[in-house]
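Supplementary Methods. Inverse-folding protocol.

Structures were first reduced to a discrete structure-token string of length 335. This string, shown here, constituted the complete conditioning input.
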């Protein structure tokens, strides 16, 4: 494969063909003559050595190779667009960009006011924010696809030298009429294992904690539905479709508005740490260091590296003794 023969116009044409299912419509969108568009598409397929589309009477159908091209092609064009914006900003003396990838837990509970405050203090640094599940955040850090990442403690990340960003607490989220909602004392998660659960999507640290807890009891996790956001989880719980476990600070405002009840959990794994780390090779960038220091200081987590001691603030010694019985500790041991 000769990648030097790839050009952006042909790539955009292929993406338009995949989106519209029509070579004619794609050619019109890119202001190309149909014959020129057809030639470009054939040349692209010849360069890649694979058929990207099946031709039929109704138009085009994407092949498996075409799906790969679409996935990587979209990512490539997005990176090039960011490159253009960042270079333009630097040339005009306006902004340096920092790519921050964060878990939903950090975004919903802590980041909005922190980023607003950072923007006022450092108007010359723009934070490009992307929300991902914890496993994706860690992968993005290792692969250099983001400058900073905030994620829930769990995956083995000693190589990233993370520091504690914040702590949160998981609570049981219930309809107010639910039998468990009538209990005033904290509840063990065991009591909820016979209930239908609304969970987050695969890769979320929260889902992994629930799966681990069920596995420890030798019981199945009755996962009825999986969604992307805390808000969607609460709507489904309010509709009576199941119960859930979510971070307290994120869910309490939603619970009050939707008529839900939150109950504390007695389980040690319900107390979590959120970690902050710089991406591979990004620790020396000045803008990255400035944002990282601001987030760590603003969150009030003056602790040692998560892979080392607990530091002066954060968790006590008793917290450390509980750590090895948590699903996060188990995940580290399995790495």
């Amino acid at each position: 494969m000769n990648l030097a023969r790839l050009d952006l116009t042909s790539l955009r044409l292929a993406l338009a063909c995949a989106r519209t299912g029509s070579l004619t419509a794609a050619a019109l969108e890119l202001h190309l003559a149909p014959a020129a568009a057809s030639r470009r598409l054939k040349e692209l397929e010849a360069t890649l050595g694979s058929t990207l589309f099946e031709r039929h009477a109704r138009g085009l159908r994407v092949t498996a190779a075409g799906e790969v091209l679409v996935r990587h092609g979209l990512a490539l064009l997005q990176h090039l667009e960011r490159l253009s914006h960042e270079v333009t900003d630097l040339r005009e003396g306006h902004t340096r960009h920092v790519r921050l990838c964060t878990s939903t837990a950090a975004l919903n509970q802590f980041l909005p006011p922190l980023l607003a405050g950072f923007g006022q203090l450092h108007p010359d640094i723009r934070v490009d924010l992307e929300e991902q599940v914890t496993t994706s955040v860690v992968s993005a850090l290792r692969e250099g696809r983001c400058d900073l990442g905030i994620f829930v403690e769990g995956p083995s990340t000693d190589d990233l030298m993370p520091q504690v960003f914040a702590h949160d607490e998981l609570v049981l989220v219930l309809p107010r009429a639910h039998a468990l909602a009538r209990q005033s004392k904290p509840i063990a998660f065991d009591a909820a294992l016979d209930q239908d659960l609304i969970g987050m999507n695969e890769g979320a640290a929260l889902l992994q904690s629930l799966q681990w807890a069920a596995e420890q009891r030798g019981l199945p996790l009755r996962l009825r539905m999986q969604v992307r956001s805390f808000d969607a989880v609460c709507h489904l719980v309010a509709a009576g479709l199941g119960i859930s476990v979510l971070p307290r600070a994120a869910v309490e405002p939603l619970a009050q508005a939707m008529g839900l009840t939150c109950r504390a959990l007695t389980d040690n794994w319900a107390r979590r740490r959120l970690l902050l780390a710089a991406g591979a090779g990004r620790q020396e960038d000045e803008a990255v260091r400035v944002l990282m220091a601001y987030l760590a200081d603003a969150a009030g987590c003056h602790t040692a590296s998560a892979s080392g001691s607990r530091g002066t603030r954060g968790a006590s010694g008793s917290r450390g003794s509980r750590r090895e019985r948590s699903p996060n500790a188990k995940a580290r041991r399995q790495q």
